[in-house]
Amino acid sequence: MEGEMRIGVDLGGTKIEVIALASDGTLLFRHRVPTPAGDYPRILDAIKDLVGLVESKFAQKGTVGVAAPGAISPTTGYIKNSNSTALNGKPLDRDLSRKLGRPIRIENDANCFALSEAADGAAAQARVVFGVILGTGVGGGIVVDKQLIAGRNKIAGEWGHNPLPWMADHELPGAPCYCGRLGCIETFLSGAGLSREYRFRTGVDLAPPEIVSASTAGDEKATECLDLYQSRLARGLAAVINVLDPDAIVLGGGLSNLPEIYTKLPDLINKHAFSDCIDTPILRAMHGDSSGVRGAAWLWPAVSVR
Fold it and tell me: What global pTM score does this model have?
């Protein structure tokens, strides 16, 4: 199905967002509602209502793409690896297709983020793009020649569920991850990971923005945590560069706004990547927290998934 209007839906843990894009990528409409957490039938209804809201507003149907946590297993056809656990084991694409009465496309939210930034965002001029989300979780996506690379097992780009490279003794064995393993990159680089590090050093619970503010105000422990965070991020990205060697890396999510990250990170990566010099651009997402939902809209019809 192809149409003048592309509709994108971002299914997040706390909110569901819908946008409508014109054929040239111009934003036509945007709306958010709270996610009915843990209630799969109500999630389906909420998405149906949002799509209906868009189509009634513009009196036309559009293509529908959905950014969701996790991925559709090529083996079972059900959602897997989602930290929104109500989705796991559900045929989300088939259920939504029935609800909406048309084919839809679903991709991992980090994949949609990467696609958005490669299509018409910060990395629009790059051929091979690695997109990174640093927030509640740590996701990644790969786009080559503006085509999303989902992978044979639908896990391409899932760098967050590899072990943190070059761990120091005090980092071993790492915290438990929801995936069942210890020491995943996500456990170090998520918002919860940064807060855990500060709590370990001070006994005080602070959210990441509060840690940044504390560092600015002269809190040495907060500054140590942020320095260590950047070291860990650099190690994780150096391993990605060693395997993929992308033309650009785009960072999104709340933690991508950490101060000095774009000036310090290249030198830190150089210490670990397997080359005499690494000049990979580290870019801030152009579309901010709308990148995932924009990427979902771009799943139809301009970009194919292989």
Answer: 0.90
